[in-house]
Amino acid sequence: MDDVQGHRGVNNARRALRWALEGSRSPMETNVAVIFTLPLELGGYGFCHPTLNYVVRPTPEEYPLCQAPYYSVDVCWPRQMVALEYNSYMEHMGHVAFDHDGMKRNSLEALGWKFIEVTKGQLSGDALDVLARQLAKALGAAYSQSDPGLRDRLLLELA
Q: For position 107, what pLDDT does the model report?
């Protein structure tokens, strides 16, 4: 960024980079993480930064509780053992995907993880606020509602 100092948009890009998260495998994973981690004054909910696509590896003692040797979690807070999965209608509604998702959820919950599923329909309006409250409870974090106008602008920008 130093090489382009003085060019149009550099300052905005610098500010945006402060909130960038690595490891996303889809635009919606990115959107979910951004909505929950941006500070309130930018339209987010201000939760601590998660790890994207974190791999949970059961110990040998835990293998009998699991259906797979590891699980990749879309948006994860490992320290708090909170797993948030974005389930698109396209990728997660067939019977094979539905079965896999259920086994993954059951296995992670048996290991002590708190598991939250998210769909596109939950990412706006009152449903988003309920989801944020659920996430705050799972994380043991305070819930603060962002300004609805700022949040709506953020959601439009992310769409």
A: 96
